[in-house]
């Protein structure tokens, strides 16, 4: 790389860092947001919140955990009960949990091929970990912005030992199939003698869309992974749930992967708090996300935006995408100016490039978002669009 190229790359990196710092500062100072996730709080605030809530979910006079016992075992039993599985094992990350689950299934089926969506988390966000670390062979069933269909699974051109389904499929817009479609896909995989694994990082909030309890949804799969921080606002961590024999083998591989951490009680406590406090509220968040989505559509139409899309039109969970016909840099600057000047942050997630002159972002509705009425959203959209015009014309 030439000196000029290095300087250009350095300047670009500095610009990204400044934008990140500016966004974090604007979010912290904002009086109104649709979602205020715990990780955005200061360390002092997060520790204070845990100290306040933890006594309500676990006896703090009990000894601490060592290598996954005590409070960690309590959390594992709670997850297994919620999902209706024989057992569950705590993992520091979902990446580790799913690699291990799928390599365990490969040993049982004798087939290391994993069928999944082109937008599934391991394909997009894990640097080819399934093949590079776990020795598995991922194959893509479809790249359409929806879950695979039963026909696609049934007619796939080569054998596979496991079908992995991400529920909801985040990078396609947090989309879910219908209950009938899901049961048909699972049946199609079983017809091919394949096991079914759910990437259920956000499975907790799928009950509204499916109209089924968690244990019935999880019961369709042979194994399920769930996250403790994406929707439950924990410090981190994940769980793998399924048959006792699979979970026991997974614990062995967890040790080999370096995932049997000496003490994990802060993360386990925060997960228990999330199960107690956030899990029951998720249906409320999903319902209000649909109010917010409708108001966004109405607001962009009233503001005369030539083309705008909220996807899915009726969100399947409390998270969804917004697509607008402007350069993402313009949209990012307009969102920041709105937050800095009005203390209202309508769009707090970075804008990505969906194509030439097309920006896309994600919207999440949590407790703070429940305070917004449809009129509040429409007013914020009108102000945002005016700022987009200012930035674009500057």
UniProtKB/TrEMBL annotation:
Q: Which GO terms describe its molecular function?
A: L-allo-threonine aldolase activity
TM stretches of this protein: none
GO cellular component terms, alphabetically, are: cytosol
* Disordered: region residues: 1-30
Residues of the Aromatic amino acid beta-eliminating lyase/threonine aldolase domain: 68-297
Q: State its cofactor.
A: pyridoxal 5'-phosphate
Q: Supply the alphabetized keyword list.
A: Pyridoxal phosphate
In this chain, composition skew of type Basic and acidic residues spans 14-30
Question: Entry's InterPro entries?
Answer: ArAA_b-elim_lyase/Thr_aldolase, PyrdxlP-dep_Trfase, PyrdxlP-dep_Trfase_major, PyrdxlP-dep_Trfase_small
Query: Per the UniProt entry, what are the Gene Ontology biological process annotations, in alphabetical order?
Result: glycine biosynthetic process; L-threonine catabolic process
Determine the domain of life of the protein's source.
Bacteria
Family, similarity comment: Belongs to the threonine aldolase family.
What is the name attached to this protein's record? Threonine aldolase
Naturally occurring in which organism (per UniProt): Streptomyces resistomycificus
